[in-house]
Amino acid sequence: MYRLLDIEFEHEGQKQVITPVLLQDEDDFILVDCGYPNFVPLLEGALSRHSVTFASISKLIVTHHDMDHIGALAGLKRRYPHIEIVSHEMEKPYLEGTRRSLRLVQAESTLESLPPEARPQAEQFIRLLESIEPVPVDYTVKSNELFSWCGGVQIVHTPGHMPGHISLYLPGSETLIGGDVVVIEQGKLEIANPQFTLDLEAAVRSVQLLLEYDIKELICYHGGLFQGNVKQALEELVSKYTS
């Protein structure tokens, strides 16, 4: 079973929503992604609406190391040290701080090419990325690994947005938790921020990979539960970038 933890907040004066996911069965609770820095109270509130506390959560699976997915990770680990942090093996050095964030490297590399009026905001973004605290990863996963967690979780390596990005397939319910492999914009599936995707061709191939799975329900971190024919929407998205 899964539950969507829609979290509403304001960022730069605009209302935004992110959708971490809670997996559960009779024995276990697992959180997938955890939002921006200082989001621990928002996460606690979202869990409480489902009568769950962090004391019950055993693992936190990270889809990739973008700030909106891991910003609260260090704060959560300090407050709830029993929670095991799980990521793809390629993401581990970025989460632990032994390698610099790829998003930070990207932001720094484009700074000089920006017009002067855009640089203050970009510099603020860089400072925010630099402030993200490293967190030890307790357990790394590889593509196609199938775990018995919460009724069955299959790891799907979906690079492009970032090289170590993963999605999670739940065979029992034919559900895919997509992270940022795709987003929902105006009711349609789209590549997440294609202008900032580290490898757009790989991102499109990852969408093609999803067509190999029987997906009845698709959950996007940005957009929540997709309403519509998942396979058709994925095919249309691939066609948009390959035709």
TrEMBL record:
Catalysis: reaction(s): 3',5'-cyclic UMP + H2O = UMP + H(+); 3',5'-cyclic CMP + H2O = CMP + H(+)
InterPro entries: Metallo-B-lactamas, NDM-1-like, RibonucZ/Hydroxyglut_hydro
Gene3D superfamilies per UniProt: Ribonuclease Z/Hydroxyacylglutathione hydrolase-like
UniProt domain Metallo-beta-lactamase: residue ranges: 17-222
A Pfam family: Lactamase_B
CDD domains: yflN-like_MBL-fold (cd07721)
Role this protein plays: Counteracts the endogenous Pycsar antiviral defense system. Phosphodiesterase that enables metal-dependent hydrolysis of host cyclic nucleotide Pycsar defense signals such as cCMP and cUMP.
Name of the protein: MBL fold metallo-hydrolase
